[in-house]
């Protein structure tokens, strides 16, 4: 089986959420691929240096270099490693991430062209990014969705008398965590016994701001910090609604996981979300940062008969296509 070097942010040991380099990487290893990784260094300069070192070390030993490619500072990791791959004559495959990546390729067109036009192929995990890249003139594209192992997500019985809200994401400005507390405050006026649990690691000062906001408004929010996948899946049994409050998004794994668990999803309708979720079909959608509308949509789950059942049934059907047992064929056909 082929050998791969996977370049990305392998930082779960430092308290961050596992990303594609860890999930897809482990899936590929289970299928018989040999996978080398860079980097798990917490320091960004050291991470970059290790990525460069590993690329030099393994360029002649691997068949492909996979590069997780984001829109922020990590974009420059992808640029440097992709050009190093060109110099060393090894095929590289950018795996596209992030709801704001279309803006990045327009802002940094010269550098984007050097990365994406010279790639063996670019992997878009959503039709949102696929269309954005196609519209920017990139033709060496393939859609392979993000993936989960459906068997790990048991559906539990929910009751819909009082909202028990679950939010799962890193605490970062782009994910707008404070909106979850604002929605919760509104819901408490209707349902005094409502609860909110927010799961995820700190990524910027959003965690402190969200916690202070909850304290200021005298609402009790459960903040768990980062949990393992097994632990947050177990925790989800105590909740009956999943909310996604993000400003930018692609195809968030946490939303796919919530759908697999049978939780009705209420989400902002941003970035790649409308390519995954359809309003009143497999989720309920609201405009970006529209707290009042999200409150109303959550409330509908407790006032409109049969709405939860139809949404969760359709959501369960949607996530079937993200199961690794289906998606793995696309990766194997590409890499062997």
UniProtKB/TrEMBL annotation:
Query: What keywords are annotated for this sequence in UniProt?
Result: Transferase
The record places domain Glycosyl transferase family at 164-317
Any Pfam family: Glycos_transf_1
Q: Which SUPFAM superfamilies match?
A: UDP-Glycosyltransferase/glycogen phosphorylase
Q: Name one GO molecular function term.
A: glycosyltransferase activity
Q: Which CDD domains match?
A: GT4_PimA-like
Highest taxon of the lineage = Bacteria
Q: Does the keyword Transferase apply?
A: yes
What protein is this chain from? Glycosyltransferase family 4 protein
**What organism is listed for this UniProt entry?**
Flavobacterium rivulicola
State the taxonomy lineage.
Bacteria, Pseudomonadati, Bacteroidota, Flavobacteriia, Flavobacteriales
């Amino acid at each position: 089986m082929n050998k791969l070097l996977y370049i990305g942010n392998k930082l779960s040991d430092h308290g961050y959420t596992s990303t594609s380099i860890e999930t897809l990487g482990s899936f590929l290893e289970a299928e018989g691929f040999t996978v080398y990784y860079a980097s798990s260094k917490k320091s960004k300069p050291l991470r970059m240096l290790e990525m460069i070192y590993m690329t030099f070390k393994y360029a002649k030993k691997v068949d492909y270099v996979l590069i997780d490619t984001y829109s922020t500072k990590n974009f420059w990791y992808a640029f440097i490693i992709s050009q190093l791959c060109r110099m060393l004559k090894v095929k590289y495959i950018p795996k596209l991430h992030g709801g704001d990546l279309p803006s990045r390729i327009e802002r940094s067109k010269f550098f984007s062209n050097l990365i994406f036009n010279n790639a063996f192929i670019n992997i878009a995990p959503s039709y949102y990014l696929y269309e954005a890249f196609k519209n920017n003139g990139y033709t060496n594209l393939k859609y392979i969705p993000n993936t989960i192992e459906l068997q790990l997500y048991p559906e539990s019985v929910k009751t819909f008398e009082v909202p028990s809200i679950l939010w799962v994401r890193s605490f970062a400005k782009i994910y707008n965590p404070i909106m979850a507390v604002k929605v919760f405050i509104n819901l408490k006026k209707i349902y005094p016994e409502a609860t909110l649990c927010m799961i995820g690691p700190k990524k910027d000062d959003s965690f402190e701001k969200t916690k202070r906001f909850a304290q200021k408004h005298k609402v009790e929010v459960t903040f768990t910090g980062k949990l393992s996948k097994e632990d947050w899946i177990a925790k989800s049994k105590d909740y009956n609604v999943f909310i996604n409050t993000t400003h930018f998004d692609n195809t968030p794994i946490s939303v796919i996981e919530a759908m697999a668990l049978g939780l009705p999803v209420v989400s902002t309708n941003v970035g790649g979300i409308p390519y995954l979720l359809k309003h009143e079909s497999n989720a309920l959608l609201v405009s970006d940062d529209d707290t009042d509308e999200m409150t109303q949509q959550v409330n509908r789950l407790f006032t409109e008969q049969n709405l939860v059942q139809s949404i969760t049934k359709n959501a369960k059907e949607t996530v079937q296509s993200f199961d690794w047992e289906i998606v793995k064929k696309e990766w194997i056909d590409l890499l062997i």
